[in-house]
Design a protein that fits this description.
This protein has one domain: TIM Barrel, CATH 3.20.20. Helix content is 48%, strand content 9%. It is built from 14 helices and 9 strands. Helix 5 runs parallel beside helix 8, helix 6 crosses helix 8 and helix 8 runs parallel beside helix 9. The chain is globular, with a radius of gyration of 19 Å. Bound molecules: zinc ion (ZN).
Length: 351
């Protein structure tokens, strides 16, 4: 794949991302952010700060665009939070200030059993979901067809944490699998409807985080509760889907590779070579530069080393492993596209 990169005609960032999501030849490996690359430094640069940048479409679009214009990534991603649709469902949100992420007030769960679950009729017109749709429209108008626009729709497992509380939801999954499946089934519509609305607004691909995270649940859980549902999403949301699950996930990657999702956004707790071996070109991998240590507290040369490790393993798209810490330096983020370009230049000249 990478070996024939030099024979592929120059592509736009959008073409590059979409080709890599299909495992088709690319002119170089795309740098992609399926989750947020917003930082306080970038907020200051364009005067679009949290919490406004999570609630005002113009600020949201301004901040998202910096992923391409300032950092040089091939994609932009305006959905910095994981709580936009949870807010529309009625969860209480702590919106925080410019240096912190908004969170759901877990002490006040809104549902506890299937009978409680009601999808509000204003799911897509609520200010916090509409903000995302309007921001995608603005980005499409301003960036044209040049840059890949990635949206985000949360999976039902994550929505279960937000609406019922993490502990309660996990306890239910242990005690009562039928009830858990009923809840997941009822919440699926949120994922599908918000995803489809983002396609209509102009998104090229969607990140679908569903936090069956490595340290909370086993690979067996993924098979039991999530695999079939994720296969359904591939049928019902007609756009490349990028599944995002944090933590060590090699025990579920074989299942994930069977879903038909375009890509899996994988964590640095998984070795790129080992992960590529398991996925064996059934699904693209996006990853997996470490956030809390490398991007946040080390220097550009450490970032570069991790990028190269992914490229050497044949990982199809490169980027941070998850939403980056808000204090990450622009210098470290810019090291990602630079390292990709350097690696490809060396690779071509070595042929
Ligand atoms: Zn994550």
């Amino acid at each position: 794949m990478n070996a024939n990169a030099s024979t592929v005609a120059p592509m736009t960032p959008r073409q590059r991302v979409l080709a890599a999501l299909k495992r088709e030849p690319v002119d170089r490996t795309p740098v992609c952010n399926p989750t947020s690359v917003a930082t306080v430094e970038l907020m200051d640069l364009v005067d679009a700060h949290f919490p406004n940048a999570n609630r005002d479409p113009r600020k949201m679009a301004l901040l998202a665009a910096t992923g391409h214009t300032e950092l040089g990534f091939d994609s932009v991603m305006p959905v910095f939070t994981i709580i936009q649709e949870s807010s529309a469902l009625g969860c209480k949100i702590q919106w925080e200030e410019k240096d912190n992420w908004p969170t759901v007030k877990m002490s006040e769960p809104i549902w506890s059993k299937p009978e409680d679950i009601r999808i509000p009729s204003d799911l897509l017109t609520h200010p916090d979901t509409k903000c995302v749709l309007d921001a995608i429209r603005l980005l499409r108008r301003e960036l044209g067809d040049d840059v890949a626009i990635i949206g985000k729709t949360m999976g039902p497992w994550s929505l279960g944490y937000h609406t019922m509380g993490v502990e309660k939801f996990l306890l239910m999954s242990l005690d009562d699998p039928d009830q858990t499946k009923k809840c997941l089934d009822l919440m699926k519509q949120v994922t599908v409807d918000f995803g489809r609305a983002q396609i209509d607004a102009g998104a090229d691909a969607l990140t679908l985080p569903d936090h069956a995270t490595g340290d909370l649940v086993s690979g067996d859980y993924y098979d039991r509760y999530l695999k079939e549902m994720h296969i359904e999403f591939v049928d019902e949301i007609p756009i490349p889907l990028i599944l995002h699950i944090c933590g060590r996930t090699v025990d579920r990657m074989d299942y994930i590779a069977q879903t038909g999702m375009a890509a899996f956004h994988f964590d640095s707790k998984n070795d790129p070579g080992e992960s590529m071996g398991i996925c064996s070109h059934r699904i693209s991998l996006i990853g997996n530069v470490n956030n809390p240590e490398t991007l946040y507290s080390k220097g550009p040369e450490d970032v570069e080393a991790e990028v190269r490790k992914n490229l050497d393993a044949g990982v199809q798209l490169v980027g941070p492993e998850c939403a980056i810490p808000l204090q990450t330096s622009i210098e470290n983020l810019k090291a990602i596209p630079r390292a990709v370009r350097d690696w490809h230049r060396e690779h071509v000249s070595n042929n």
